[in-house]
Amino acid sequence: MGVRDLVYGIYEKSLKGQIPADRIPRHVGVILDGNRRWASLQGSTSSEGHRAGAAKIVEFLGWCDDVGVEVVTLWLLSTDNLARPAPELQALMSIIEDTVTGLVEQGRWRLHPVGALDLLPDHTARMLKEAEESTRGVEGSLVNVAVGYGGRREVVDAVRSLLSEHAARGTSLDELAQLLDVEHIAEHLYTKGQPDPDLVIRTSGEQRLSGFLMWQSAHSEFYFCEAYWPDFRHVDFLRALRSYAERHRRFGA
């Protein structure tokens, strides 16, 4: 072990000691940003950047397991990304399919696709649904795989689902307007039944959410990291947890 590795290990241990066990977020959302910019710096293609980012996911989920995070949401593809040039989008879909297949083969996590699956290629949408079904009995943490995801689209889909449900019951619009509240919307989101994210991490230095978990993140804590996603390290994750643990959550008060 070199001096650098020794110093890194000492620092890592110090960070762990600064995070109280009772201050670990239950749900962590991650915007995996910077794959293409990372690839550009390496003189590589966008696809190689996305593959490097995909390779980081299993390692990251292991870190979450180690500290007891119960739910992780990984934003792999936005609805805006669906407008990318066809060759790039096709390559990205292939990488996502390979990534999800690898997560299934790990047998460590329950997978749940979140997003507008009807906007995805049939094969990708079918594979995501099969991944959810095949991991339903796994006792590990829950991993939301956000593909074809957009916060505004999610809210629209939730309202559509709510209206369809009440139309089937014979509820009039006037009656629905009288009883509608926040919880009625929440019950129709892609993440229904899950705790809202306590902590949202975005890599690459961008300090915006871009609509990620727009409804659910109303009271979340945010952590913006300069590292591009393929370079995101364990110490970066621990720093995010330490920052979260140090904050006094006010939940809008």
Characterise this structure:
By secondary structure, the chain is an alpha/beta fold. The protein has one domain (25-245): Decaprenyl diphosphate synthase-like (Undecaprenyl pyrophosphate synthetase), CATH 3.40.1180. Helices cover 49% and strands 13% of the residues. It is built from 9 helices and 6 strands, in the order αβααβαβαβαααββα. The chain has helices spanning 3-17, 35-42, 46-67, 86-106, 122-134, 151-169, 173-179, 182-186, 234-246; strands spanning 27-31, 71-78, 110-114, 142-149, 199-202, 221-224. Strands 3-4-2-1-5-6 form a 6-stranded parallel beta sheet, with helices on both faces. Strand 3 (110-114), helix 5 (122-134) and strand 4 (142-149) form a beta-alpha-beta unit. Helix 1 (3-17) runs parallel beside helix 9 (234-246) and helix 4 (86-106) packs parallel to helix 5. The longest helix has 22 residues, at 46-67. It is globular, with a radius of gyration of 19 Å. The mean pLDDT is 94.
